Amino acid sequence: MAGHSHSANIAHRKGLVDAKRGKLFSKLCRAIYVAARVGGGDPAANIRLRYAIDKARSFSCPKDNIERSIKKATGELGAENFEEVLYEGYGPGGVAVLCEALTDNRNRTAGELRRAFELAGGNLGGSGCVSYLFNFKGLFVVDPKNAAEEQLMEVALEAGADDVELVEGLYEVTCDPKVFEAVRKALEDAKIPTESAETSYIPTNYVDLDVEAGRKMLKLRDVLDENDDIQNVYANDNIPEEVMAG
């Protein structure tokens, strides 16, 4: 089932890039801005900033956009004021949903999300209502054509990864966020390319949805992705394959 694959959601996001490129660049640059504001504008000394830049580059975000965001954060081009907020709620069928946001107005963002959840047949909840159903992990996705299973397991586990699993034709390497950089470097040194490399909220269990609820959940995801303040959406939805393909 498509919902069980963490990489399926990544692929789904990448598939929407062309249609929403400007909006996506804005979100990626906002993440760069916050990382630089918190930890400084030097990616060599600020791991979080380096991750944000790498992610922006993976989506072909222009270099000028990246540099402008860093200069804004360090005060060279004026200042903005974004804060990180984790919104939690229930989607259709009781699906647990986490939304990572960077917002300059908590009340506005909460109001927009509340309407989005209610239209999908769910509701926005309070802090902690569903986050306990997720583990925060480092996640690397590797195409099997780029690495043999034994090699990948040896490199990843030796660097501190927790697990290597084949999910829907792709290897998913998970690790504690504290060793994310060590695993990333080990894969890089072993010349094993990744389809994606990011920290992610990974569900501890899944909710099986029927076709109708699956369609509502995909619609909710799209509405949340359209929101300028939302950086990432995580959910424990298990959506039927025909809905994902449709």
TrEMBL record:
Which GO biological-process labels does this protein carry?
A: regulation of DNA-templated transcription
Pfam families linked to this entry? TACO1_YebC_N, Transcrip_reg
Q: Which residues form the TACO1/YebC-like N-terminal domain?
A: 5-76
Q: What is its main location?
A: cytoplasm
Q: Where in the cell is it found?
A: Cytoplasm
Give the top-rank taxon of the lineage listed in the UniProt record for this protein: Bacteria
**Gene Ontology molecular functions:** DNA binding
Domain TACO1/YebC-like second and third stretches: 82-236
Keywords, in A-Z order: Cytoplasm, DNA-binding, Transcription, Transcription regulation
Question: InterPro entries this protein is in?
Answer: Integrase-like_N, TACO1_YebC-like_2nd/3rd_dom, TACO1_YebC_N, Transcrip_reg_TACO1-like, Transcrip_reg_TACO1-like_dom3, YebC-like
Any one GO CC term of this protein is: cytosol
Q: Which HAMAP family did the record assign?
A: Transcrip_reg_TACO1
Family statement = Belongs to the TACO1 family.
Name the UniProt record assigns to this protein: Probable transcriptional regulatory protein OJF2_15280
Look up and give the organism this protein is from. Answer: Aquisphaera giovannonii
